[in-house]
Model the fold of this input.
Amino acid sequence: MTLRTFLLPLCAPVRSALTRFGRNEAGTVVVEAVIVLPLFLWAYIALFVYWDAFRSMNTVQKAAYTISDMISREKVGKTTAYINGVQEMLEYLIDEDQNARLRVTEVTWSTTRKRFEVHWSRSPNNGLPPLTTATLQNYSHAIPTMTAGDYVIVVEVEVAYQPAFDIGMPNQTFREFIVTRPRFAPCIPMDTLGVPNITTCPVS
Done:
């Protein structure tokens, strides 16, 4: 007698019981609903939360690129009040229940010192500390290569996001760092109204 022939009679009742269980269609709908319904509800809420997070992130990104493009199209110098107005526009473009922090910095390249330098930096309500030439070097990897006399506008946006429901997704902050070259002027001076010139757009 082999091991297989010895085990077959012992396994037959188990196999028969499993077969009957698989074919049995009897059950209680209420019990099954109690088990399955919470899973469906959690899945539905989770899908909503993830969709809302991606929608919010996309809205912040579009708003940041919109104001960056708007600033890059300016042809004359601007004031701090203008940047404050940009902040209001940013908050209008994103969700009403979100607060945005904005920092706008104009950057140039110094061929003599071989580094990026801050021409001016503004942040409405000091939401973010204005950049200096020293602190700007921490972001040098995100700024494209520039030549002498080039200026770029760096727009930074930070928006805190809190999920509507607790499904395990932590609170997070959407961050945008956008670099745009002025389109119609060599630079956009700050607190110096009028058309930019060699005085307001120095080359170093």
In short: The beta strands are 100-110, 115-122, 151-161, 172-180. Residues 28-180 form one domain. The longest strand covers residues 100-110.
